[in-house]
C-alpha cells in the first residue's frame, strides 16, 4: 500500500485533494471510514491536542492501523500541536503526519520550532510528514459571530516568506493563510484568495494544506484544488452534523448509546461522503 507521501503525489498528479476529517471518538472514526470505503478513496483522520486528550492518541492510532491492516488507505495526523514536546510524542507513537502550529509566533520562532521537529522526525522515521502553518487563520472550530481577531488580508501568507520558510525548515507540508479561517462565521466565511494559493504553491513547490474548510463553497474548493491545495481539513461541519444527529436520536427516548449515537454517525457520514466526492472529483 502507498504511504501518505505517495498518496499526496498521486493526488497532485490527478488534480484532486485528500480529505482530512477530525474525530473525537470511535463513532466519528466509523463515519469517516465507512464513507471513504464506499467511495474507494483514501482519507486522513485528524486528532488535535484536545481530541487526543479525550480519545487517547494510542487509541486513535490503533483504530487507524487496524483499518489499514485490512487494506484500506487511511492515515492519521496529529493535528494542531502547539508544543514541540507533544509533537515529538506523536512522532514517537507512530502517526503518519504531525503539524507544529506556531503561526501565532514570530517568523523566526516559527522556523526554529518547525526545523527542530523536522530534524527530530527525520531521525525517528522519515516517512512521517511534518507540517507547519504560516499566516494566521484563528484557532476555534466553533460557529463564530465574527471573524477571529487577527485574521485579515494582511495576515495571509506571503509567497516569498513561504519559500524562505520551506527552504530553512525542510517541512513536507505547508498550511497557508489564504482567506480561510478555523470555524464557521454565521454570516458567511470570507472568500478564498485563489491567486494567493497559486503563488504560494509556485514559490514553495510542496503540497499545501487548506485548514478551516468548513463553510467554503464547492466552487471555491475546486478552484483551490486546481490552484495547488492537496489536503483539505473539515471539522466544524462534522461536529454540527454529529451533534444534530445525536439530538435527533435522543428524541426517541432510547437509552442504549449505540442506538441514539447511530444517528449522529449517520449524519456525520453524509457530510464526509459529500466532501470526499467533491475533493476527489467523483
Number of domains: 1
> Strand percentage, roughly?
15-25%
- In DSSP terms (H or I, runs of 4 or more residues), the helix count works out at 12
Major β-sheet profile:
8 strands, parallel
SSE pattern, N- to C-terminal: HEHEHHEHEHEEHEEHEHEHHH
Number of strands: 10
The whole-angstrom Rg is: 18 Å
Helix content: 40-55%
CATH superfamily heading? Aldolase class I
Find the structural class using helix and strand composition: alpha/beta
The average pLDDT score comes to 92
Given as residue ranges, the uncertain stretches (5+ residues, pLDDT < 50) are: none
Please state the second-level CATH architecture. Answer: Alpha-Beta Barrel
Q: What sort of overall outline do the alpha carbons produce when their principal axes are compared?
A: globular
Termini gap: 22 Å
Q: Features of this protein?
A:
TIM Barrel, zinc ion binding, alpha/beta
Helices and strands, with pairings:
Layout: H1 4-13, E1 18-22, H2 26-39, E2 43-47, H3 49-55, H4 57-69, E3 74-81, H5 84-93, E4 97-100, H6 107-124, E5 129-134, E6 143-144, H7 159-169, E7 173-176, E8 184-185, H8 194-204, E9 208-210, H9 218-227, E10 229-234, H10 236-250, H11 257-260, H12 262-279
Parallel strand pairs: 1-2, 1-10, 2-3, 3-4, 4-5, 5-7, 6-8, 9-10
Helix pairs in contact: 2-12, 5-6, 7-8, 8-9, 10-12
Summarize the structure.
The protein has helices at 4-13, 26-39, 49-55, 57-69, 84-93, 107-124, 159-169, 194-204, 218-227, 236-250, 257-260, 262-279; strands at residues 18-22, 43-47, 74-81, 97-100, 129-134, 143-144, 173-176, 184-185, 208-210, 229-234. By secondary structure, it is an alpha/beta fold.
Amino acid at each position: 500500500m502507498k504511504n501518505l507521501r505517495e498518496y499526496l503525489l498521486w493526488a497532485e498528479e490527478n488534480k484532486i485533494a485528500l480529505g482530512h476529517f477530525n474525530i473525537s471518538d470511535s463513532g466519528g472514526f466509523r463515519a469517516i471510514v465507512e464513507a471513504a470505503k464506499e467511495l474507494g478513496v483514501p482519507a486522513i483522520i485528524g486528532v488535535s491536542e484536545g481530541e487526543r486528550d479525550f480519545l487517547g492518541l494510542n487509541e486513535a492510532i490503533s483504530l487507524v492501523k487496524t483499518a489499514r491492516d485490512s487494506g484500506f488507505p487511511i492515515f492519521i495526523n496529529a493535528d494542531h500541536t502547539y508544543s514541540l514536546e507533544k509533537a515529538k510524542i506523536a512522532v514517537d507513537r507512530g502517526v503518519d503526519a504531525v503539524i507544529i502550529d506556531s503561526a501565532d509566533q514570530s517568523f523566526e520562532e516559527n522556523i526554529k520550532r518547525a526545523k527542530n521537529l523536522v530534524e527530530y522526525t527525520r531521525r525517528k522515521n522519515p516517512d512521517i510528514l511534518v507540517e507547519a502553518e504560516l499566516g494566521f487563520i484563528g484557532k476555534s472550530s466553533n460557529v463564530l459571530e465574527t471573524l477571529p481577531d487577527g485574521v485579515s488580508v494582511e495576515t495571509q501568507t506571503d509567497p516569498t516568506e513561504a519559500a524562505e520558510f520551506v527552504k530553512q525548515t525542510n517541512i513536507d507540508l505547508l498550511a497557508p493563510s489564504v482567506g480561510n479561517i478555523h470555524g464557521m462565521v454565521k454570516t458567511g466565511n470570507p472568500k478564498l484568495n485563489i491567486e494567493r494559493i497559486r503563488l504560494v504553491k509556485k514559490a514553495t513547490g510542496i503540497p499545501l494544506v487548506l485548514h478551516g474548510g468548513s463553510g467554503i463553497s464547492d466552487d471555491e474548493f475546486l478552484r483551490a484544488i486546481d490552484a495547488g491545495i492537496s489536503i483539505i481539513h473539515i471539522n466544524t461541519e462534522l461536529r454540527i452534523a454529529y451533534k444534530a444527529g445525536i439530538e435527533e436520536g435522543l428524541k426517541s427516548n432510547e437509552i442504549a448509546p449505540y442506538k441514539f449515537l447511530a444517528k449522529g454517525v449517520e449524519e456525520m457520514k453524509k457530510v464526509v461522503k459529500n466532501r470526499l466526492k467533491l475533493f476527489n472529483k467523483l
